[in-house]
Amino acid sequence: MSNKQCEEKLKDRGVRPTAARILVLNMLAKQTAPISLMELEILLETLDKSTISRTLALLLEHHAIHAFEDGSGSTKYEICRSQSDTCVVADRHIHFFCEVCHKTQCLSDIKIPVVALPEGYTVNSINYMVKGVCPACSQAGNKLKTEE
């Protein structure tokens, strides 16, 4: 995603495009997996933690990104790739947390099932986290067993 595309996405979501907001959104767009605030700080060393935190909060509020807890103890963030003006629950996908390498991966082709809640309840977000062993760690574990 180019800086111009980031600027347009921000405007579409009702967010004034500042340099810091474009940098954060662009960095999230470049990622192939969700990342934490600490990882963003390392990647965006020219921005301080409070600027990144405030930017993430604003982007969440305007549905340009979404966040979830993956079981590692930190919140992970990723850009909302929905073409609509909001990051709707039906567009969300399942995430997988590998208990060996501690990486979180998007399973973008598997959508989160929408649950029918009793009358009076409203869904604002859903976090569907699957935990286990990823293919790379599984394969590495099998190699170690066959070498023994």
CATH architecture classification: Orthogonal Bundle
Q: Characterize the overall form.
A: globular
Major β-sheet strand ordering = 1-3-2
**Gyration radius over CA:** 17 Å
Amino-to-carboxy terminus distance: 46 Å
Largest sheet features: 3 strands, antiparallel
Runs in which pLDDT lies below 50 for 5 or more consecutive residues are none
Overall CATH class: Mainly Alpha
What would you call the structural class?
Answer: alpha+beta
Number of helices: 5
Beta content: 15-25%
Count of spatially separate domains: 1
What is the CATH homology-level superfamily?
Winged helix-like DNA-binding domain superfamily/Winged helix DNA-binding domain
CATH topology: Arc Repressor Mutant, subunit A
The whole-number mean of residue pLDDT values reads 84
Order of helices and strands: HHEHHEEEEEH
